[in-house]
């Protein structure tokens, strides 16, 4: 776990920015309507969504029994599973996001969805996350490229 999340807490936000960029691409591919709403209409930055979710590993966003299962799978699957979980949260909170009147309300809907909007059990939630149509290997490769690019820009 240390190798997965420690970079999120460095003195520079490089890793969060890299993962936020990748997450935005995933959201545009998997949830295009929500990407247009959150990133376009509400002008939320991808980092404003990723930072609180990824650095907390979804504490405060998921009920404890869901959280335990997410952490189990995250420890096995790695960082790409965080993308999957965040995409499921966006999918579950879609109605609340559409009904939101302000960007802050839309962001709150994603970061803290009511439990009744989540799949009925932790296992159903994990199944939903694993079914998200993203390619983990592609994310890993793009992540390495973006990290290298970000390091070159900061030198």
Describe the structure.
- It is globular, with a radius of gyration of 15 Å.
- It contains 10 helices and no strands.
- Helix 2 packs across helix 4.
- The longest helix has 19 residues, at 136-154.
- The model has no long low-confidence stretch (mean pLDDT 90).
- The chain is mainly alpha-helical and 155 residues long.
- It has helices at 2-5, 14-30, 32-41, 46-56, 64-77, 80-92, 94-99, 103-111, 122-131, 136-154.
Number of strands: 0
What is the overall number of helices? 10
Structural class: mainly alpha
Share of helical residues: over 70%
Mean pLDDT score, rounded?
Answer: 90
Rg is 15 Å
| Share in β-strands | under 5%
* Element-by-element helix/strand order: HHHHHHHHHH
**First-residue to last-residue Cα separation:** 28 Å
Q: Quick one: biggest sheet?
A: none
Residue runs with pLDDT of under 50 for 5 or more positions: none
Instruction: Give the overall shape, derived from the CA principal axes.
Output: globular
């Amino acid at each position: 776990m240390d190798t997965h999340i420690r970079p999120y807490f460095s003195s520079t936000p490089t890793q969060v920015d890299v993962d936020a960029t990748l997450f935005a691409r995933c959201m545009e591919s998997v949830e295009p309507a929500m990407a247009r709403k959150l990133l376009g209409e509400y002008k939320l930055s991808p980092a404003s969504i990723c930072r609180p979710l990824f650095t907390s590993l979804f504490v405060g966003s998921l009920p404890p029994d869901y959280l335990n299962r997410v952490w189990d799978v995250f420890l096995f699957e790695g960082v790409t599973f965080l993308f999957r979980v965040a995409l499921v949260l966006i999918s579950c909170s879609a109605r609340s996001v559409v009904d939101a009147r302000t960007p802050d309300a839309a962001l709150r809907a994603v970061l803290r969805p009511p439990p009744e909007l989540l799949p009925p059990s932790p296992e159903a939630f994990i199944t939903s996350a694993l079914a998200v149509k993203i390619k983990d290997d592609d994310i890993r490769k793009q992540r390495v490229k973006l990290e290298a690019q970000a390091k070159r820009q900061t030198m």
